[in-house]
Design a protein that fits this description.
This protein is α+β, with helices and mostly antiparallel strands. It is built from eight helices and twelve strands. The strands form four sheets. The protein has a six-stranded mixed β-sheet with strand order 1-5-6-4-3-2, with helices on one face. Helix 3 (111-130) runs antiparallel to helix 5. The relative contact order is 0.11. The mean pLDDT is 93.
Length: 287
Amino acid sequence: MQVIHAMKTEEVSDIYQVIKRLGQGSFGRVLLAQDKKTGEPVAIKLVRKDRITLKDFVKELSISISLSGYHGIIATYPMFYNTMDYYIMTQELATAGTLHHLIKTKVGIPEDAVKRCAAQLSRALDYVHGRGLVHMDLKPDNVFLMDRDCYNVKLGDFGLTQKVGKLVSLQSHIIPYMSPEMCDLKPDQYLILSPSVDTWALGILLYNALTGYSPWKEAVEGDTRFHAYVYWQEHIDQVPPPVSWQKFTREALDMFNKLLSCEYSARPSILCVLNYLRCPWTVQYLS
């Protein structure tokens, strides 16, 4: 069992030479820093104490450490620092940033790079699922790059990760990567969590990476683009795909149809994407 060392310090500058900010959100920020003792460049994640309990922070830290042995997951050091305002964890530095920063709006990234991401992410998520966990927050911001051509991609940020089979309730807000069964939850309803939630999110991520935009804003009936997709999926042999999906080849549409099945129990293992890597995914690529 991994031992986590908690260290008290008054200031981040006691331990690290902060170089620049890498990202910021409502729960805190991530900084590029250099360890003053070792000289090693690292990413330090500062989480605001007024936004998270020590129990929840240690849970995320423990999960992150337990998954660090897999080469496709960002490594987390078995320690944390405790300042007056923040809990701080130290992680491996993704030298090329995140997939979010690489994707060009309404353009995406080259298909070969998307396929490299798909292969590595599906295996990393399969590793997570094999440990009885669901990531729950797969999106380009949480895909970390060691190079800009996506030859070495790593999964990270396990702040929302939960155990398979846990009862989950309505989330505070809906994002494009959220599956329809999660979007449809009412305040008094619960869903038995399964890895298919991540399978759906991977489908959305691949669409986003190939096109530079999301297929819809929310996977709910009132979203016209999602409604058009559902109608096509229900009448797949009678009607053509919606216009925004006609840029994909027959093989890619078959892959998306599996990953983004509206019936969550019908979604296959996340490794199913590996069966489609050798065929073209976009019509433009085919030509």
